[in-house]
Description:
single chain, alpha+beta, elongated
Amino acid sequence: xxxxxxxxxxxxxxxxxxxxxxxxxxxxxxxxxxxxxxxxxxxxxxxxxxxxxxxxxxxxxxxxxxxxxxxxxxxxxxxxxxxxxxxxxxxxxxxxxxxxxxxxxxxxxxxxxxxxxxxxxxxxxxxxxxxxxxxxxxxxxxxxxxxxxxxxxxxxxxxxxxxxxxxxxxxxxxxxxxxxxxxxxxxxxxxxxxxxxxxxxxxxxxxxxxxxxxxxxxxxxxxxxxxxxxxxxxxxxxxxxxxxxxxxxxxxxxxxxxxxxxxxxxxxxxxxxxxxxxxxxxxxxxxxxxxxxxxxxxxxxxxxxxxxxxxxxxxxxxxxxxxxxxxxxxxxxxxxxxxxxxxxxxxxxxxxxxxxxxxxxxxxxxxxxxxxxxxxxxxxx
Length: 381
């Protein structure tokens, strides 16, 4: 039998054990670290005897026993098998993003209850199919709102700016802007945008205390996403970094000073990021989610929640006459540092922006004509 190491394979240390974790078809298995050397001998299709020839310091029996366990776990695949064919297809489809993206995607599939258990060597793990369970009860549960009580606090206007633009107009007028006039945004407009997108709408009894609802769907109403605002051009607000306190409807000053050049640098040197009136960093406070949903799949929900907030932000900004923008390209550690986040339990996920849109955008692509459609595979594939 000819075997080859799975291309979709991640190895790591977990609870003091060396774990071989093939995906999506295999079982996380705790093995001796020497298994990595044996796997390396199966880089290409080989028989166990051929592989043993490259591992002269190991006895044939040792290699044979290890191969049996690695085959059972899915780390070694048999030539021509369905698992080997699937492995090849995944390697082609996910190749540009492997190993990080494919591992995250497949290792969190079909897992809904507790964190994935690591099977001992040679023992199959039953798939997790039960519904979500609560995590361990903490003596001090995470706070419902994030606050910086020692920070200087700017209370925001509570009279909302107009949001009576017809929904159809807002929906079809929404587009990502990259050009802005540079005129400052009014404090009332910023206050309305923050309140509508990030503020509480109402409060609900969850049986163990209160939770609150926003205008965007959020998994389990955990509201784990906080908003941090980098002000560049807002009337009455000095440039700097602020936290939006939704409970107090206030901006809490974290650090003074913020320049267009720094905004561009934080957003991975994208030139357009220097032009908006402000940036908004969406940062996940992970304990709010993990305390109820201990499965690693819940991290997917954090990303989805950030996306929901991003869309509500874009639509609300459009209704207020602003041009919204958003990017996933940013310097994570630098952004976290600027927002005062520890980047472990409180970490940035998404960067939004807005300002007055330029009447004649310079960076907007032209409408597609016949040559563009001729060059596009619209229905093929």
